[in-house]
Amino acid sequence: MSAATLSNVPDSTPADGVGAFPTAMLSPGAEARIRSAEWDEAYRRLCLYLRSHGLRGDRRIQRLAGRVIDSVDASDPRWKGMHPTAMAMAAVNHAAEEWFGALAQDVALEEGGEKEINGRLAMLVLQDQVEWSDYFLHPTLPEETRAVVREKMVMRGPTFSLASMSPRPMDYGPLAMLATETPRWDWWPVIKAVFFWFCVFWVLFFAIQWGRV
Hints:
By secondary structure, the chain is an all-alpha fold. The protein is built from 9 helices and no strands.
């Protein structure tokens, strides 16, 4: 399953609401199987999945969910024994991985980065810049969309490098010289002053007492 496969599915507009399966967009061979409750559940799960990516508009979501359902080939050995919902989710996840990878392929990111993660970041950048919903899971992205991704995501912050963890002496600059020139507190003059006034007090005290006698 790939995004290119999805693009080959007829892209008609459904007339039904989200609660009903939009059969108008499916191939005649798929209409018989999608009437079952299992495929209807798969369709509903796909709609929720697409909404979680920020797609707007019920018709757009229905149309894309129908294309995913129609592209699932139950006879494929990969889907053997799988529930229709599991098949549909596996198909849309694979298509999304390819689409996100294509969205981020023009961006010079760090080596070893996951393309899908970078693509999801690029989609967040696009949400406030251009209308990208019409191109979700589509194999071809307009140049305007690619230009916005390149412009917004190539900006990087400063590169940090850790050279050593060993402690280094602190350089206080002029503060170190100022600290050496600042006079330190000397208690000796204070003690002498206290002793002097203590003696003066007692001399005056005894003088007053002697005068009264």
